[in-house]
Amino acid sequence: MFSKEWLIGLINDIYGDDFINAAVKAINVPSGTFDNMGNALSEAVTPIASVLICIYFILAVADKMTSDNFSAEQFIKLLMKLVLSIAVTDNITTLSLKIMNFGVAFSSLMAANAGAFASVDATSLVENMNLGTRISVGITMLIPWMASLLLKVAIYVIGLGRSIEIGLRAGLAPIGCADLISGGTSSNGIRYLKKMIGISIQGGVMLVVVSSAGALCQYVLPDTASLTNALFIAQYMGIMAAMVGIMASSKSLAFELIGA
Questions:
Q1: pLDDT tens per residue, range 130-170
Q2: Cα 183 from chain centroid (whole Å)
Q3: Distance of CA 225 to CAs 11, 127, 218, Å?
C-alpha cells in the first residue's frame, strides 16, 4: 500500500492537474450540447407563450383603459409592443442558443488561461524516501486526499448544474420572454434575457476563479518539499475550499456584470 507508485499517485491526485481539469471539464460544455433539447422544448412551450402574450396584452389594455388619460396613442404603442413580443417569441430560441454559444466561446477563452496551477514533481519528491517516511507521509496525505475528492464532486455539481440551467433557460425562453409588454426595459422578458446572458458568462467567471486559486497556490508554495508540510496542506485545502465556495456564488457576480 505504501509503495512509491501509490504515494506518487496520491500526491498527484491532490496537487496535480485534476482540479483544474475537473473544473474546466465541468464548466466548459461543448457548443451545441443542448441545441436539440432546446429546440424540442421550445416547440412544446411556444403555444403556452403565445397564450401568455395575449393575456399580458389584455391586462395592459385593461389597465390603460381604466385610467383617465387613455388615448389612441397609448393603444397603438401597446399594439407595437404586442407585435414585438410575438416577433421575439418566434425567434427567441435561436437567440437563446446563440447566447449559449457565446457563453461557451467565452468559457473556452478563459479555459485557455486557466492552467495556472503549480506543476508538481511527485516522483522526485518520493524517490529518495524510505519506507518509514513513505508511511508517515502517506498517512498525513490521506485526509487532504479525501477532502480533494469531495471538492472535486462539488466542482462537478456546480459546473454541470450551471450547464443544465443554461439548457433549461434556453428551452423555456419563449415563456420567460413572453412579457415584453409591461415595464419597458424592466419587463420580465428583458430581465429573463439578462439572466440568460449572465448564466452564459458565469462559466468564464468560474474559470477566472480557478485561475486565481492556482496563482495563489503558486504564491504559498515555496518549494516542492513543502507539499507534505502540514501547514501548506492546510493552506492548500483552504484555497481549494474557498475556490469551490466562490464558484458556487459566481452566478450573483455574473448577474452584477450585466445588470440582471
A1: 777 777 777 777 777 788 788 788 888 888 888 888 888 88
A2: 29
A3: 12, 12, 14
